[in-house]
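mind reviewing these tokens:
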Amino acid sequence: MPKGVGSTIAQNKKASHDYFIEDTFEAGLVLQGTEIKAIRAGKVNLRDSFVRIDRNEAFVHNMHIAHYEQGNRFNHEPLRTRKLLLHKKEIARLIGVQKMGGYSLIPLKLYIKDGYAKLLFGTAKGKRNYDKRQDLKAKDANRQIEKALRDRQKY
């Protein structure tokens, strides 16, 4: 794989449905023991995870990394809080976002880049039910337009 290109391990597909993603950040993860082997095996779930800033450090909570099958007694705890590696300026910016009302820090994607596990997370604002319905209507309309164009090209 070329340098700088990452292979996606896990994605939070529900995040774009439930939130407006405004800005994204890439962070490294502090991992212990067999966690990287379980990540490379694709045993990760980002569904209910979130990022929180505590004492000028960023942590990801509720990210589930399953036990590694060959890990025996040295296996890790699946739901432990993991530290994120960010620059001070990025953390200061995230503290400002976290203080604003209605914004959350939601993990979007976990991938391996240059041999290191990276987490892509975004600043997100929650969607209302009518926003979700409008998005579904727009997707359906685009699907119908593409189908009509394909049918038209056949003749």
Observations:
- The beta strands are 6-11, 19-29, 44-45, 50-54, 57-61, 64-65, 82-85, 103-113, 116-126.
